[in-house]
Design goal:
Elements lengths: L15 H22 L5 H4 L3 H6 L3 E4 L8 E6 L2 E7 L2 H7 L2 H4 L27 E5 L10 E3 L14 E4 L4 E3 L20 E3 L4 E4 L17
Antiparallel strand pairs: 1-9, 2-3, 3-4, 5-6, 6-7, 8-9
The structure holds FE2/S2 (inorganic) cluster.
FE2/S2 (inorganic) cluster binds next to loops.
Amino acid sequence: MATSDMTAPSGLHGPEGTRRDFLYIATGTVAAVGAVATLVPLVAQMNPDASTLAAGGPVDLDVSKIEPGQQVVIRWRERPIFVFHRSPETLKTLQDPKLIAQLSDPNSEEMQQAPYAANWHRSIKPEYGILVGICTHLGCIPMFYPQPNATSPVAGWMGGYFCPCHGSKYDPAGRVFSGVPAPYNLPVPPYRFISDTTIRVGENPSDSHWDFSSIRQL
Ligand code: FES
């Protein structure tokens, strides 16, 4: 990633230097995530030309080739964007009262997404989750564990994202658990569907004028 990736985004809490250190660590993690992403047949679509990335312009992705249960990672404004095709089982988990009872902001009341994503699935279409993959604690990149597991990465795992830096947990919609260091849900970037199967990250739907800079914390 470019040197500018090591600069903390605006709206951060805590000492800037500390957070920048973690973003530096996260930079290495992005490289690892990118390497994994090349294993799926979406390379061209996940790598818009350099001038588009440098300008921070919108990035398109055809989501039809992402299998249920699979996630790809693209970059927008030099940040990792998780694009997760949720399975029917995952959608059921998102509405499980046992999960909801463990979440800090289950109804997305904090401004961590546009109004069009302030719903139980935090997205436009329930089956596709679009999230900024930066932990709201100190900026590491959470790891993707979509499957429930009795013991890993922690006991009683129901699927979602786990940040190994200090143990923050997020559900498959990026909703943060109570009692972990991260204070807010993972951000949802502005995006819209430009066709039935193609998303454009960086643009709101035509009926929305949401300002991404109004977000509580990146
Ligand atoms: S950066 Fe501390 S838990 Fe994620």
